[in-house]
Amino acid sequence: MTIKAYIYDAYGTLFDVHSVTEKAEFLFKGHGKEISEEWRKKQVEYFMLHQLTERYIPFSEITRNALLYTLKKLSLPCNEDALDHLMTAYLELQTYEDVHETLQQLQNSDVKQLIYSNGTNDMLQPLVKKRKLDGLLHVLSVDDIKQYKPSPAAYKYAHEELGVNRDEVLFMSSNFWDITGAASYGFKTAWINRAKLPLDLLGIKPDFEFRNLSELLEHKTKRSSQ
Amino acid sequence: MTIKAYIYDAYGTLFDVHSVTEKAEFLFKGHGKEISEEWRKKQVEYFMLHQLTERYIPFSEITRNALLYTLKKLSLPCNEDALDHLMTAYLELQTYEDVHETLQQLQNSDVKQLIYSNGTNDMLQPLVKKRKLDGLLHVLSVDDIKQYKPSPAAYKYAHEELGVNRDEVLFMSSNFWDITGAASYGFKTAWINRAKLPLDLLGIKPDFEFRNLSELLEHKTKRSSQ
Fold it and tell me: Over 60: is that where the pLDDT of A155 sits?
């Protein structure tokens, strides 16, 4: 197997969506963790439902709607300022600690690198810049084609942009729904199982399972020396 | 607005999926409630992902896979007997208490009545019979066309089976994802909001919101007398 391109999912894979917890806790004392969890849960549910019902709206709107629902469900008072403040947190998410170093080490390898996300460019670009990844790899958004991952159309777009064979792409995500879509499409997959979850039973087995992104480096080194 | 057909979703709307809790509690003491909740959560997630990735498998398999995952995630020992036992519970779910009477009262009205479910016929038929609904209304399964709700294709199939206009159908479900799909397709919708949840922000507002199914009767009576 020759891998010619690495694709990385963004939210949950490179960027920790739960780094909004601190801001949420500051704004809504005692509720930071549950806001962060419900917000992410609803965000995923909402883009899946928009995709399933064939009514695309941008991820930025979905993220805001998911936050609004979350605050309503938790009976927390919500004003525009608090909403804006929390939405801004999404432009400043922390990377997981192994991310920057791994991407940097791979920068000059012969493998193309790409972030491919359900996020919109106006969410992704400031974030990638803020976390100093902008020089390291390109960013591609499903917003260009208005089809969310994990639909086959979404992976097809990234595939066409890369111009390599399907099985020459290693697609990495911490989200198993994303692995399911990528593997169904025909990419090689590495599940970055940060949360140490059991394998979902969706008829898909990822080619690799890593605990974190730096295991990709170890894996690459091992293969090169064989 | 003239309504010529009522469509009822099955799981969560007529039948209480959490009536498996007792059996789960008997088999796995202290874990009944969390098994039931995780099982349902995974079941919904799994059929959505199969639909999104265009890889249909029947709901009976999805339900079993979701149960297997649940037991694994909760680190509960699982053998075939326990699995079979819990799967059987799905053929004997309780109806909500207002269901039988409501359906019976509507049986001889001029409105067609249909259960339309993601479940397979071999799950639905024994259940409907067990709960003595088999004489009251017809049952239709998405398994005939292998497209899950809430995809537009799924609602189209039920629509064609009924042979009335889209806006002459009142589609009832407790699952907001189902209301979203039905309303997007063009059915009139009544959200049976048993759990008293806030309205999801998916760009869809149901035509009616009922706390339970018997409110349909009150609504119908009110309209007739106007």
Answer: yes
